[in-house]
Amino acid sequence: MDIAQHIQELQASLPQGVTLVAVSKFHPVEALQEAYQAGQRVFGESRAQELVAKQHVLPKDIEWHFIGPLQSNKVKEIAPFISLIHSVDSLKLLKEIDKQAAKNERIIRVLLEIHVAAEETKHGFTPNECRDLVHHLPDLPHVQICGIMGMATLTDDETQIRKEFHTLHELFTELKGSVFSQSEAFSILSMGMTHDYKLAIEEGSNMIRVGTYIFGEREY
Ligand SMILES: *Cc1c(COP(=O)(O)O)cnc(C)c1O
């Protein structure tokens, strides 16, 4: 099956209200064009330089999401156009995004990345660190916190994956009912990748980030 078919099949299978982010990192511009022609408009990338290069040559109505680890010194490269940053994992980064957004006279939408997986290497705040952050947030007028993002452990153990997604959903609901109760923007629960997006949707995800299923294996 080709990229267009995968996009169409996946889009048709998603419940209403679930947004598909097509994760196109490491794939060539031609692959993104094929997805675009199949109607896909939301793309996720994980490296600033690669994202800027693709944004430069592809249609301007694409909504670009940044999903990978983001170094503070790279924020300025994507600040002029980025639509959503999923991977905010420090106050320092949040402040830098605010600064660069101000320079570009825009508000940048972000998600707070939450660490729930068993692997040590995954980035993000623990749920408690996240609570602490949002209760003591400085004034950042050019940043809009729109929700949270997380990754489950890479495992075949469905029970564990569900448990981790459930933890994310509970934290999302808690924050939405407290700190962000006055924020209409706080509405995104980004979880689920190729191997676990179906479980993620069952556990309340409304934004999935799928790469391999659409574009095939990545070549590093
Ligand atoms: C690469 C990546 C994905 C997509 O992973 P697939 O398994 O290819 O669907 C999703 N989220 C993040 C944060 C990623 O880095």
From TrEMBL:
Pfam families recorded: Ala_racemase_N
Top-level taxon of the source organism: Bacteria
InterPro entries: Ala_racemase_N, PLP-binding_barrel, PyrdxlP_homeostasis
Gene3D superfamilies: Alanine racemase
Matches recorded under SUPFAM superfamilies: PLP-binding barrel
Domain Alanine racemase N-terminal: 3-218
Residues bearing PTM N6-(pyridoxal phosphate)lysine: 25
Keyword Transcription: no
Alphabetic keyword roster: Pyridoxal phosphate
Family according to the record: Belongs to the pyridoxal phosphate-binding protein YggS/PROSC family.
HAMAP family: PLP_homeostasis (MF_02087)
Biological function: Pyridoxal 5'-phosphate (PLP)-binding protein, which is involved in PLP homeostasis.
NCBIfam families named in the record: YggS family pyridoxal phosphate-dependent enzyme
Name under which the protein is recorded: Pyridoxal phosphate homeostasis protein
Origin species: Parabacteroides absconsus
